[in-house]
Amino acid sequence: MATKTEQGAQEYVPAEPHSLDELRRAAAGCRGCHLYRDATQTVFGAGPEHARVVLIGEQPGDIEDRRGAPFVGPAGKLLDRAIADAGLARADAYVTNVVKHFKFKATATGKRRIHQNPNRTEIVACLPWLAAELSMLHPQVLVALGGTALKGLLGPSATVAASRGVLLPWPQAAYQPELFPDEGARLLATIHPSAVLRAVDRDALYDGLVADLRLVTSALAG
Ligand code: URA
Ligand code: SF4
Fold first, then answer.
1. Residue 122: which CATH number?
2. pLDDT at res. 99
3. Is residue 216 within 8 Å of residue 141, measured between CB atoms?
4. What is the CB-side half-sphere exposure of residue 129 using CA atoms within 13 A?
5. Calpha distance 36→222 (Å, rounded)
6. How far is it, in rounded angstroms, from Cα 149 to Cα 157?
7. What does the pLDDT read at residue 6?
8. Letter string b/e over residues 106-136, b meaning 16 or more CB atoms within 10 A of that residue's CB
9. Which pLDDT does position 165 carry in this prediction?
């Protein structure tokens, strides 16, 4: 039998939320899966309630876990630069993650925490928070940053390589469209900023990320 902590986030999400702050407070106490146990805190999304673009990463990293805010480490700095280079206003963007607790493995000495990819069960458990955030935000465009976020949204067979370069209808393209508010947004798939940091050919990957984000800038202008 599933234990209480394996049942997902839904029971922790307020039934009729009125604001992102209310959601953020509720998410701080989420025990919807086991990931809360080892992490420091829930890292909820951040940005203005009127944001037209919502950028969705995988999960908080080591620095985000300590600071309690998404995309404030090296990947976040690169993402901020890419957003600016694509002509998007930072004030138009809300950033969040498909999984809201940091999943890691401690090294043998216990000194370092190594990032672990969240699995499908953990992603599905956490999706109610993203759905609730989107119901408060009403964005025009969602951006899935990397394969984990994309698979969380479009299902396990989705890949960035096959999906990027076009704006997909949202939530129609979702694996479980009924989870998400049906407000006629669009979804763009692109690479994760961490992939740029890890790449040998950083400039080419960075240019690809910016080119994808420019599609969002055009969509907002059009
Ligand atoms: N990587 C992510 O996917 N999300 C963060 O918040 C930070 C790094
Ligand atoms: Fe809840 Fe998500 Fe954290 Fe799991 S990862 S405890 S579902 S907020």
1. 3.40.470.10
2. 98
3. yes
4. 34
5. 41
6. 12
7. 63
8. eeeeeeebeeeebeeebbbbbbbbbbbbbeb
9. 93
Residue 41 Cβ inside 6 Å of ligand 2? The answer reads no
Structural domain boundaries enclosing 126: 5-221
| Whether 196 contacts 78, CB under 8 Å | yes
Q: What is the mean predicted confidence (pLDDT) over 140-150?
A: 98
Ligand 2 center from residue 56 Cα (angstroms): 15
CB count within 10 Å of CB 200 equals 6
What's the pTM value of the predicted model, to 2 decimals? 0.96
Looking at residue 175, its pLDDT comes to 97
**Structurally, how many domains does the chain consist of?**
1
Provide the pLDDT confidence category of residue 1 given band limits of 50, 70 and 90. Answer: very low
Q: Ligand 1: which residues within 6 Å by Cβ?
A: 57-61, 64, 70-71, 73, 75-76, 97, 194
Mutate to test the pocket of ligand 2, among 4, 44, 101 (most ligand atoms within 8 A of CB): 101
Rounded CA separation 208/211 (Å): 5
Which tokens sit at 64? 């985000």
Q: Residue 141 is which amino acid? A: V
CA–CA dist 126, 32 (Å, integer): 7
Q: How far apart are CA 149 and CA 158, in angstroms?
A: 10
Residue 2: band (very low, low, confident or very high) from pLDDT cuts 50, 70, 90: very low
